[in-house]
């Protein structure tokens, strides 16, 4: 019987991010295009008979009880009533709090992977609903398809986007998502658009409503955006700190990433339409 799985947890980019209003609970309504990319963390999940959820690796700065993979595993255990446990090993590549959704994706891979390992038989819809209780960015990674999203990011429609090579720069500062959403100067009244219109417009019309506020508060992000914009149109992902630009060929992307060194860490990643997690599990 299968007792160990090693699975990818891919990152995402917000190719477009509009803030269209605020819910009664203070959370902001968004319209966004989430694109999955091939930059990944790796998770190894090993089933155990004693019911214990054990973290074999620590995430710096995150208490084990707060770690999203431990929380996801415990939530799935509770929801299913299984007597099984798991040892969870996380090989972290994705920058934390960078707007590429690493923690959310780790949690999604835990839910989808343990569902297979423990043979629970939950559907992806059921797992996405569980994931939403831990974070708004988790459902897209559970479903595993590049998507148009509304609500707080949980109402998903799968779409197919171009699959360029992205240069992603993390300017080495950490952005507080909460502070961005609390800023009085944040654009929070963008007129809602249809998905068809967003897709028709194409990348040249896509923007991120958080960008102006984030650039004002974090000069390093403004500088990275200005520098990258000399090579190709550049955007912030999520509430930052990462910025990205799309290139048609890998060679150009690698040359730009190499030259980006003085602005922070830089990666090259390919845009995807389906998640490598779902490719690996055949689901
Ligand atoms: C805006 C996005 C787009 O992908 O940014 P990134 O986190 O990826 O950068 C996400 O949806 C972010 O979701 P997530 O990262 O789960 O946000 P949380 O940590 O729950 O939010 C921190 C705080 O930001 C505010 N917040 C967050 C999301 C939202 N739609 N409206 C809000 O007003 C709330 O005050 C919340 O307490
Ligand atoms: N397994 C995990 N990996 C990364 N961050 C985690 C994890 N568990 C909890 N966190 C917390 O979640 C925060 C946001 O993580 P992350 O998803 O990487 O950022 P973002 O939502 O900006 O892309 C981190 O700063 C950290 O405090």
Automatic annotation (TrEMBL):
It comes from Vreelandella subterranea. GO terms for biological process: isopentenyl diphosphate biosynthetic process, methylerythritol 4-phosphate pathway; terpenoid biosynthetic process. Residues 205-264 form the GHMP kinase C-terminal domain. HAMAP family: IspE (MF_00061). Catalyzes the phosphorylation of the position 2 hydroxy group of 4-diphosphocytidyl-2C-methyl-D-erythritol. It comes from the Bacteria. PANTHER family: 4-DIPHOSPHOCYTIDYL-2-C-METHYL-D-ERYTHRITOL KINASE, CHLOROPLASTIC. Pathway: Isoprenoid biosynthesis; isopentenyl diphosphate biosynthesis via DXP pathway; isopentenyl diphosphate from 1-deoxy-D-xylulose 5-phosphate: step 3/6. ATP binds at residues 95-105. Belongs to the GHMP kinase family. IspE subfamily. Residues 67-144 form the GHMP kinase N-terminal domain. Its EC number is 2.7.1.148. It is an enzyme of class 2 (transferase). This is 4-diphosphocytidyl-2-C-methyl-D-erythritol kinase. The active site is at residues 12, 137. One of its GO terms (molecular function) is ATP binding. Keywords: ATP-binding, Isoprene biosynthesis, Kinase, Nucleotide-binding, Transferase. It catalyses: 4-CDP-2-C-methyl-D-erythritol + ATP = 4-CDP-2-C-methyl-D-erythritol 2-phosphate + ADP + H(+).
